[in-house]
Amino acid sequence: MSSSNYPYSSGALLDSPNSYMYTPFAGSEFLGAYFRSRNDFIEQIHRRLDNRKREVLPTLAVSQIRIEETHVELKSFFPSAGECPTTSCDSEILLLDSCLESGEFHTETILKATLKIAAHGRHKQAASWPQIVDALLRNIEVKRLIFEGYQKNLRRGIGDAKQLGNYCKLSAALALHFDREVDLRIMNALLKTNDIVSAIGANNLAAEDAEWALIGALVERTCAEMLLSAEGLKQ
Questions:
Q1: Residue 106 to residues 36, 48, 160: CA-CA distances in angstroms?
Q2: Cα separations (Å) of 44 from 79, 107, 201?
Q3: How far apart are CA 45 and CA 162, in angstroms?
Q4: N or C: which end of the chain has fewer CB within 10 A?
């Protein structure tokens, strides 16, 4: 591996997932290659969305992310709970609870519910959210894939693992966890998810999915810069 290249965000990763095994740290040149890779992908998404109607949220402000100490502030992405009816997303919160209780869910449905909850500022009230995302985390960590659905206490993936939109929505859902705290496990999963989405390419994404991917990519880049700065490293 050349330190001037970032090799993990290219290729048919849904067919041959990255292993990441014993990846050496190649110094500042590698970090520079990583940031260039992400910046290129973010620019691709912006071009993909140019002259198109925004489909996720009319008020989405993806360029505004504030860092407060070790906390990533995402209020600029989503309206506060006070601006929405208190009953907004009650059915989605109940859906998460039901999935956790039954031990199975349809991935796209649960990710849409998760993101709608966040869009209405109620993600901190969804007690089942961390456990649901944890189930998806395990699959990104181990298999580098997200399946169409999950059974057996949310541990066994079933169906297709090539639904592109699920990776974009998962990227945004993981990014939203930084509204709770900066978690290195979440950051690791976000990085791996975004490697997959980057390899898919912005032009192969539906406009709505590209917007979710943009949220995930921007938050990942910002958190990476923050974590490196905390360690005294520069890109």
A1: 35, 28, 11
A2: 27, 26, 8
A3: 20
A4: N
Give yes or no for a contact between 121 and 81, defined as CB atoms under 8 angstroms apart: yes
pLDDT in tens, 167-209: 999 998 888 776 655 678 888 999 999 999 999 999 999 988 9
Residue 5: phi, psi to the nearest 5?
Answer: -120, 150
CA distance 85 to 90: 10
Compute CA distances 65 → 56, 62, 101, 213, 215, whole Å. 17, 7, 34, 15, 10
Q: For the chain, what is the mean pLDDT?
A: 79
For residues 6 and 12, give the distance between their C-alpha atoms in angstroms, rounded to a whole number.
Answer: 15
Domain ranges for the chain: 42-230
pTM: 0.84
Contact 211, 63 (CB under 8 A): no
Question: HEC string of the chain?
Answer: CCCCCCCCCCCCCCCCCCCCCCCCCCHHHHHHHHHHHHHHHHHHHHHHHCCCCCCCCCCCCCCCCEEECCEEECCCCCCCHHHCCCCCCHHHHHHHHHHHHHCCEEHHHHHHHHHHHHHCCCHHHCCCHHHHHHHHHHHHHHCCCCCCEEECCCCEEECCCCCHHHHHHHHHHHHHHHHCCCCHHHHHHHHHHHHHHHHHCHHHCCHHHHHHHHHHHHHHHHHHHHHHHHCCCCC
Q: Is the dihedral of CA 188, 190, 196, 198 positive or negative?
A: negative
Task: Report the pLDDT value the prediction gives residue 4, as an integer from 0 to 100.
Answer: 67
